[in-house]
Amino acid sequence: MKFPLSLLKRFLITDALLDDIAAKLTAIGLEVESIEDKSESLKAFVVAEIIEATKHPQADKLQVCKVRAAQGELQIVCGAPNARAGIKVALANIGSIIPTNGMEIKKANVRSVESQGMLCSARELGLGDDHAGIIELPTDAKIGVSIVEVLGLGDPVIDLNVTANRGDCMGVLGVARDLAAAGMGALKPPCVPPLYPPPQAGGANPRPISITIEDTDGCYAFLGRVIKGVKNGPSPDWMQKILTAAGMRPISTLVDITNYFSLAFGRPLHVYDLAKLDGGIVVRKGKDGEKLEALNEKSYTLRATDCVIADGKKALGLGGIMGGSFSGVTETTKDVLLEIALFNPLAIAQSGRELQIESDARQRFERGVDAGFLEIADARATEMILELCGGEASETLLAGKIPAAVAPIAFDAKAVNALGGTNIAETKQKEILTALGFTFAGNNVNVPTWRHDVSQPADLAEEVLRIVGYDLIPTVSLPKRADVSRPALTDQQTRVCAVRRTLSSRGLHETYGWGFVSEKQAASFGGQAPALKLVNPISEELSVMRPSLLPHLIAALNANTARGNDTLGLFEVGATFENVTPTGQHTIAAGVRIGLKSELHWHDKGNTDVFDVKADVAAALAAAGVDISKCQIERTAPAWYHPGKSGVVKLGPKNTLAVFGELHPAVLKQLDCDVPVLAFEIMLDAIPAAKTAKRKALKTSDFQPVRRDFAFVVDAKTPAADLIKAVSGAEKALTRDVTIFDVYEGKGVAEGKKSIALAVTLQADDRTLVDAEIEKTAQAVIAAATKVGATLR
Length: 793
What we know:
By secondary structure, this protein is an alpha+beta fold.
């Protein structure tokens, strides 16, 4: 919400500096987003007068204007439809900088006609959103004077970010009240005039219109007053300057009064041209398909859920959001109906969101307006209209019922200090609450009607603490515990964090995907349980609880490859769903890789292959406390993996820890992926809990290790893991490591066979090995290999 400093000082008597006011506002919970002083950026723009406007000889939408300026007569080409002789305008001379876009004004040639400056609109100068025409200044403005002086733009404008619970601060009066309570000055509340006219029998103009509320859910109360014989011209200069500074465009006195009330008091009003109404006012639900031409020059199709203000034949406006253009007041309006209503915030929010209408009234009604201010607003608005527009006012007609005040809240000064960790005297607490408008009745506090957000003792504590200042609350360290606290994370959470860090360190980028996939994707990844289908899906593409993380990872790969990023690794850690039983949800770490092993380089390392994702799995399992060398590698991967380029990591015959390999081409085709994808899935729930036994101290040998190489010929279908397992167990006391360094098939090796070369490292802890020991171990290795069908090459 934007407002000028001068408006704040209408309600706050203060000598405080602007910077101090801004700092205090932020400290008490009303965040200052910016303070704008337009005097610097707009001081070069001056008043000029159009003395002649003729059609451009080569452009239908342009006019050639003769302009009287301080330096003499200028010729300016202008495209504004309201450019005409006799009006005062805002002139940008040559050399001026337009503040909204940084453009420098230069002498120009527009369709063969010289232009010696620019006539500016409100949007171009940052004074509002109006770009339909140029600014029209008051007729008594002196030529050559800066528009800063004419429009009162030397008034700093404060922009507040008002939270959703503080509807009272959507009016400057509420802001002033908070500042006064915080010690920044004294509140100057508005005086309340008597009702117009005082209730009397047989009044000159008693209640000349009927008001009925049919939609009692959408509208609680409606105050209506007819004022006849008004004269609707331009509003006073002081009001125009305030509205302009706040970013509102002055229109006419009647309209400007309603805008002023919204800005000053947070109370939206509306005025109808009485001559345009057909019968009385009815607040009802909208009719499906009913049309409304709104004041923002847009047409809306209303629905049966909308709260509509109507007369006997047509909709006049959306209650609490926006009025219709048909019933709006104009310069010729003589009789008006003043509306001061109270609408349901939830109904306002729903209609505004569905119809996509943003308005000042909607912002205030959504947050909640002061129910106790209805009659006061009626009296003040009537007084202002009669003072500025003249006329004769009828009695006020109230339809509906003004809601009662909320129940009192128990007050306990000790509880306030206990909640805030403070030691604020009870008298000080009561002083703050009283300044904010609360009243005391014994040990209870009566909540003012403008504070909808206060309903319990904790809210009272918040009010006291924010006014005292959160930064003044003493910092108190928590007492140290004598006992040892338990770890904050469970073993499973620790394991997940370790896996995340490890996969990230291996160059994979973490992603987060939806928890749903399409039925087609679910079927491709084993998700067949009908119970996993959503009753109310967001879309058909997100209609089933995901059985795998891979579909969304592949979708992310597709998005990257479409933009030229064809070397990439992604991973996600999240939940997958097998069924709806308590054990049907699993925590999975899944990843995908495409492209090269590393970025393109002259020393090309080739494309990513199955062993890269196997290495990812091994590293992640190691981080989770699993030694992959003690696991079994099998070929029984699920159907969405390539049967010849995939594997399964098991710990025992039934416990599957991970799956890795190249995804099946048919599955990739279904997912619109046209590049080979290497993937892995790690079942984090299947990893056994870490043992609590103390870890043994690391033991190293001071004696020289010995390496012996062996090449064994085995059947081509024999897993290399079987051979490694057999060799590793041949002489456990001396064998430190067994590593494959070559696999060969071809000339010299029989068809259907392959040669696997192993490097076996031998070492003792207490001696240097002699030839006899080494030879004996080598024979044991050969014998162990023979048992799995291997022969020494």
